[in-house]
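SEQUENCE WITH STRUCTURE:
===
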Amino acid sequence: MTETVDVVLIGGGIMSATLGTLLHELQPDWKIVAFERLSDVAQESSNPWNNAGTGHAALCELNYMPQQKGAPLDPAKAVSINEQFQQSRQFWSSLVDRGVLDAPSTFINATPHMTFVRGEKDVAYLKDRYEVLKKQPLFAGIEYSEDSRVINKWAPLLMQQRRKGEPFAATRVPAGTDVDFGALTHQLFDHLTSSGVALRTNHEVKSLKKQKDGTWLINYRTTIGRTPNQIKARFVFVGAGGWALKLLQRSGIPEIKGYGVFPIGGQFLKTTNPKVVAQHKAKVYSQASVGAPPMSVPHLDTRVVDGEASLMFGPFATFSPKFLKNGSMLDIVSQVRTHNLWPMLRVAFANPDLITYLVGELLKNHKKKVDSLRTFMPTAKDEDWTLIDAGQRAQVMKKDPKKGGILQFGTEVVSAADGSIAGLLGASPGASTAVPIMLDLLKKCFPEEYPGWESELRELIPTFGEQLNKNPELAATSTASTAATLGINE
């Protein structure tokens, strides 16, 4: 007899862990099984060394508030991202209170978020951005300075041996965070497995087929021994990073037609030199290079993993045809279908700057990469920094009625019309907004159950259904409460 369950989660990252936890809290009687093709969870994009660990709240990321010619700066996108991160903070706080998560310092730490720019044009833009954001309740406490003495107090490494007369400016929000999504993923899965959820590592899903009774027949095999097997599920979530596209294509749902992905890898410079690390406690973002994708915005970051602090700078783009770090060299070719070929070709024709940028990045040696770091940190020494490989990001390409095809730098949930299967495509701000992404998925895929879940969701997320930025008092109360629970008061 083929095993039948309520939910199958494909992929052992933060998305599956978050959805699994939500469903277990809302519907503890449901039988859930999670599959991960590697030997452990959080080994791809959720691994702490495969991402920058930024708690993305639009406090320092300029791409969430781009400058448009002749138009005033619009904070809507930045506010939206911040609202989403607040939901994640509230959910994590509730799980800490319930004993689901360990001590907050094991996965989140207070780390000021800064933006640092040079040149008159960027300084003028940053000041305008500050003037707009300081009026937004969720950005209360944002600071701005063009004074080298002030910026030196915030982040000394930015100012040492800085050239005199050079225009520069910085903003700072003390309430920023550094998040170890690997630790968070492990803790969520540890709780799920201790509560009866089955986690099957070293198991690879090969195909999915819709059955006449509305369930999905999932064929999988063990990666050791290659033993085949099957399982049936009422609902399937594909949280397999870059491989989500491949699995959704195999499912045959029409909603995936026209989609493709473009893989972009990354590397970071890392130092554990205690003298250097001690002088920098912040995540400092700047402007992206011309033609560079938003995910390649340079930043100098404090990282705290397993209680040890280090600094990372990057990312430097790399290219591999693989959709995952542990993917296949045939990934980029095997995704091609008649329905997505034209959109992908249109993206290639429309983004020559991206190709030029990637080629330039690939030609950089270690010295040139440290030279890039020196625009942030003039005193950087080559020997203090080593290069580490980060994760693969699969950027969404899809049909566009006007352009034929577009490259999208965000995350997108693709689901079947009947809500029986859904998958997540795309990258940043992904992990930081996993909770609101999964809440939207629940509403879309479980329309009958969702109304009955809302009271429990308000227990988990106290401001569920409300917009904090429209209520300054509630915003202040909520952020103060989660900061206290998570131990992230500056």
Remarks:
- The longest helix spans residues 76-97.
- The longest strand covers residues 260-271.
- The mean pLDDT is 94.
